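From the pipeline queue, job 12 of 40. The input is one protein chain; the requested action is below.

Action: predict structure.
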Amino acid sequence: MLTHYFFAILQIEIHKYINMELSAGQLAALVRGTVEGDPNVIINNFAKIEEAKEGCLTFLANPKYTHFIYSTNASAVLVSNAFQAEQHINATLIRVADPYATLAELLNFVNSQKAEKMGVEQPSYVSDGVKLPDDIYLGAFAYIGKNVTIGKHVKIYPQCYIGDNVTIGDSVILYPGVKIYYNCKIGNNCILHAGVVIGGDGFGFAPTSNGYEKIAQIGNVVIDDNVEIGANTTIDRATMGSTHIHQGVKLDNLIQVAHNVEIGEHTVIAAQTGVAGSTKIGSHNMIGGQVGFAGHINIGNYNQIGAQSGIPNNIKDKNILMGYPAVPARDFARQTVYIKKLSTLYNDVEDLKRKINEIEK
């Protein structure tokens, strides 16, 4: 990772080159890298290694993409200090300790240089008594309810709805169409992408002789600091107490988190996953897309769960699971191979039966 000192230098240099035109040598100096190849080649854009064109900076972090480095049209490639080339490479190499982290710093800085929106657009509605910070951006058609508290450097894009008694921390970004129901709490440095709904009613209904009677959902949702939530993800309010998303959690698009769920710090969950009510997921878990969690179960820490897995029961710590019901990943892979061989096995059994019948006759 770049130190704050070198990142400050990078800011100064990028401002000098408004179109982000730097030579490989200049960029290498800024990120404390070393150059192999032409230090004067000009870099003015970023691209993936297989799609890069002349003028682009790309990176190689995953060994399975190594073959692309020998054919890429990029002008420069960030590689690790340990990288060893097996063929000739046309691009200039910039060696750094961690190419992925270095590129992330560069991309984040370039993104931060976009013109910041400021001020209150009209029409928008702010309830009486709500104090807006001086540096807020409030987009058109946004609604701010009663007794809302909003921190510094917050951006609320058009058509957002902030219900009564909501608390929003510092440096929060709410992209267009975010809806935050009453009494919910959003921590500092959170990003909620378009269409996110926080605090909708949990799926609570009591069966009766006449159908189903709604159970009031009187809790809330609490989201801690540094959480990012993808577009159209929904997090339901608790029946009682709080649905709690701990610090550093990253949720992809189109995820359903039900009432009274708890997700531990720094857990990441991919798209279309569903977590049923009152399930507790621990910290530092990595969960693939379309995973289904049953309700009222406990998931430990540091687990890896493959895409489309079904989790009906409790899981302890540090497992790698796949399948439905989820089993250790190696067992799942072995079972998959066996399933593919079933037709051959069936034919072999039928052939053996015929031979046994012939012998008996």
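Job complete. The CA atoms of residues 88 and 257 lie 50 Å apart.
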